[in-house]
ABC transporter permease
Amino acid sequence: MENDLTADGSYAISYPASDEAQAAESVKDAPSTPKSPSDTLRNYFRDWNPPAFLWRGIATLLLTGQVFWRLCTGKLNLDQTQEQMSRIGPQTLGVSMLTASFVGMVFTIQFTREFARLGLTKSVGGVLALAFSRELTPVITAIIVAGRVGSAIAAELGTMQVSEQTDSLRVLQTDPVDYLIAPRVVACMLSVPVLSVISFTVAMAASVLLADLGYGIMPAVILDSARKALVPWDFVGMTIKSVCFGWIVAIISCGWGSTTSGGAKGVGESTTASVVISLIGIFIGDFLLSVLMFQGTGTALKKG
C-alpha cells in the first residue's frame, strides 16, 4: 500500500495489483498464438448445426452396419424374429391380397382392351405376368408394408425411446439392437418376399377370372402365354427386390424410431417421416434394381 500526493495536495491510497490481475495483464499484452488446424476444425463442428435428418440418416447407416454384423456373427434373437414375423404377415396379408386383386383386374382391363384392338389377345397373359412379377407385386407389397408395418415399428420404437425404455434395456445389459432392431429388420426381409409371391398369385388369378368373364378369353390362353413369357430369372428378380424393399422399410423405420426425441409430438413426426422416406427409398431402389437385373448384367444372367 502506498500514499500518493494528488494535484490538490491531498493524499490517495493505492493498493498493489493482485496476482490474478497481473496475470491477466501479462496474457493480454502477450502476442496471440495462431490456432492449430485441429482446434479450428473442432470449433467448426461444434458450431455447425446440420439438419436433424442428416444426423438421423447417418445413424441409420451405422445401424445397418450393426444389424449386418449381428447377422454375420450369429447374434440374432430368434424368438423375437419369429414373433415379429408372426405380426408382419397377418397385418399385411389381407390388404396385400385385396390390393393385388384389384390391381390385377385394372391392368387386365387396360391391356386386354388394347391388345384385342390390335389382335394380340394371346399375348395378354405374358405381358401381365411380366408386369406383375418384375414390378407391380414387389413394389405394391413394399408400399403396404411401409404403411402398416413400418409406421408401427417407428411409433413403437419412438415411444420406447422417449419413455426411456431403451435405457432400461441397457441397464439390464440388453443391447436394443439385438433385442429390438435386428429381429424386426430380418423379419421384414423374410416376410416381404412371401407376401410378394402370394400377391403375384392373387393378381394372376384375378386377371384370369376377369379375362374369362369379361372378355371371353379362356384361362388356358392366359396361363399358356404367361408360362411362355416367364423365366426363372423373373422370379429371382422379384425375390431380390422384395428382400431389398423389406430391408429399406425396416431399417428406415427402426432408424427414425430409435432416434426420436421431443415426446409425443416427436413420435408422430418420426412415424410420418419414416413412411415418406421409406416410399422414396422403395422407388429409388426399384429403379436401380430394375436397371441392374433387367438391363446389362441382368440380361446376361437371364440368357445364361
Summary: The radius of gyration is 32 Å. Confidence is low (pLDDT under 50) at residues 32-38, 297-301. The chain has eleven helices and two strands. Residues 53-303 form one domain.
